Fold:
Amino acid sequence: MNKQDYYKRFLQENKFPRQLKSYTWKQHDSSVYVYRQGRRLIDFSANDYLGLTKHPMLNERSQAFIKQWGAGLSSSRLVRGNHEVYDQIEKQLAQALGKETTLLFPSGYQANISVLEALFDAHVLTEKPLVFCDRYCHTSLQGGIRHAARFYRFRHNNLAHLAQLLEKTATQSCPKFILIESLYSMDGDIVDLASYIALAKQYQALLYVDDAHAVGARGELGWGEASSHSKDIDIIMGTFSKALGSFGAYIGCSWLLREYLLHKCRGIIYSTALPPAILGAISAAIEIIPQLTEERQRLHAYARYVRKFFVDHGLNYGTSNSYIVPWIIGDAKKTRDMSHYLESHGILAAAIQPPTVPIQQSRIRFCLSAAHQQQDIDYLCEVLKTISTAGSRVTQTLVSK
Ligand SMILES: Cc1ncc(COP(=O)(O)O)c(C=O)c1O
Structure:
């Protein structure tokens, strides 16, 4: 075979093609409208739950930081990239999350992969750990568990299954870890953290909670789902790339774990520090998140409204109880066609298909934002109504296109 033939064959055989899509962003003060080929679309595909990507304070602070410190820091934090603002951000964040300390990372993906790699080091632990990870955890957590060698993937958000696996392995004295998300990105379901905490305590497992989709948008002051249980969660991970409007990630942990990760975590040691522009946006987001109570209430009200609409019109949103509302269609092609149909009606919503979700679980994912207006939500419902009323006829036409 020619050097590239393997990849060619993969692409030819791949049933779920992915495509890069480009949209133009005209000067606009809202993050929820994008333009494609001159047409305005209402965006339900992004994770900008509070509309902070366009917030003047984030943008101004970002520009001010570039002006003062330049475009990049050109080295890892352990070399000379440890800009003074890191310290300030990490302290503020620790206080907000109720953790002893925090540690910033270049991205959420990198944080999960590299923190888990460091935690599961069999030399440090003196034996291979046993890891229990929810089957629907983000790919960055799934990537991290490959370093463990011994892991169980329990049924999604199924406490009974997790308890059963923990019990089955209770006699093994090796270090144990439980990995979950607080709000799952493809299903929009929020977990019962107290029950996971109880299991982690009972079986002396380290509990790692990815709060990426909850931070900013949930919790009394917006510090996520995990912050109200912070004393009982060993590691809280979160991103600045979703409701917090910019980029980068953090973990909240003990001083001891922070110290350890500074020695072992490749994502920190061998990666360039976040650039000043991003640090500026992060520092502004941290200041304003507690003030956005009204935005959070609006977001939750939109979510209740859309889910009720789904119930009233017989659309399947699975187990969602948040502002991520999937419409589970099943067939991947039908789902892609439906996403195109929605786009032709001015609605941008991602078709999520295998391998991101299981086969026959393809869905259109609607991510709501406080930056949407009620009329955007009403328009979405109106378009969905035409589809649900026309029922299989519309689907049939789309499929046969
Ligand atoms: C649950 C979860 N964790 C981690 C990540 C990765 O975060 P980032 O986009 O900051 O790399 C994502 C991103 O989609 C996510 O959904």
